[in-house]
Amino acid sequence: MRRAMELALEDANLPPEAIGYVNGHGTATEQGDIAETLATSSLFGPRMPLSSQKSFLGHTLGACGALESWFSIEMLNSDRYIHTLNLVDIDTQCGELDYIVGEPRRMSNEYVMNNNFAFGGVNTSLIFKRWG
């Protein structure tokens, strides 16, 4: 997971500090969420805002990468970042991050990252830049 994020940053020629928000894969599985949040916090640190759109849509399997990329672009362009629905108690084993909970958050970012992590290490991290 971390390697996918590092490769995306390398391809974009960006430092981790350039990313202002991460749309997490967030399947709400104990093992997956712990691994993902630890990888994310180890790369970006505890101040990285993170939420997951699967809390609204469910897991759309093969379509999740495209749908969540679209959501990430829409959030980037609107400066309105959707929260993770029904996230109340964060597992203490999860990485320390700035989880967006309760309601959407207004933020202005130049770059956001969208992550999708699948079985067998088929992982994708995409970076989107604000247009214009």
From TrEMBL:
<dbReference type="GO" id="GO:0006633">
    <property type="term" value="P:fatty acid biosynthetic process"/>
</dbReference>
<dbReference type="InterPro" id="IPR014031">
    <property type="entry name" value="Ketoacyl_synth_C"/>
</dbReference>
<feature type="domain" description="Ketosynthase family 3 (KS3)">
    <location>
        <begin position="1"/>
        <end position="130"/>
    </location>
</feature>
<protein>
    <submittedName>
        <fullName>3-oxoacyl-synthase</fullName>
    </submittedName>
</protein>
<dbReference type="Pfam" id="PF02801">
    <property type="entry name" value="Ketoacyl-synt_C"/>
</dbReference>
<dbReference type="GO" id="GO:0004315">
    <property type="term" value="F:3-oxoacyl-[acyl-carrier-protein] synthase activity"/>
</dbReference>
<dbReference type="InterPro" id="IPR020841">
    <property type="entry name" value="PKS_Beta-ketoAc_synthase_dom"/>
</dbReference>
<dbReference type="InterPro" id="IPR016039">
    <property type="entry name" value="Thiolase-like"/>
</dbReference>
<keyword id="KW-0808">Transferase</keyword>
<dbReference type="GO" id="GO:0005829">
    <property type="term" value="C:cytosol"/>
</dbReference>
<dbReference type="InterPro" id="IPR000794">
    <property type="entry name" value="Beta-ketoacyl_synthase"/>
</dbReference>
